[in-house]
Amino acid sequence: MQESVTYQAILAEGLAEGRAQEVRRVAMNLLKEGISVEIVAKVTGLTVEQVEQLASEEASNVGE
Question: What is the number of domains present in the chain?
Fold first, then answer.
């Protein structure tokens, strides 16, 4: 029984991480299309601060 509980916890964590990565990917695509930070935040459920951080990370990556 314990293995089942552990497995379920690991599975749930993995699914949540995958969803978070997908939301960040969608947010980045929207930003690249010129959508405003506020609209990206509203659409994705991220905070404005999180979207701004993604935008600044992308700008840093482009400059490398």
Answer: 1
d(CA 64, CA 44): 27
At 37, which amino acid appears? V
Closest CA to 20 of 48, 55, 57, 45: 45
> Model confidence over 20-56: pLDDT tens digits?
999 999 999 999 999 999 999 999 999 999 999 999 9
The identity of residue 31, as a single letter, is L
- Could you tell me if 1 and 31 are in contact, meaning their C-beta atoms sit under 8 angstroms apart? no
Domain that holds residue 51: 2-62
Q: Is the per-residue pLDDT at 3 higher than 90?
A: no
C-alpha closest to that of 24 among 1, 46, 48: 46
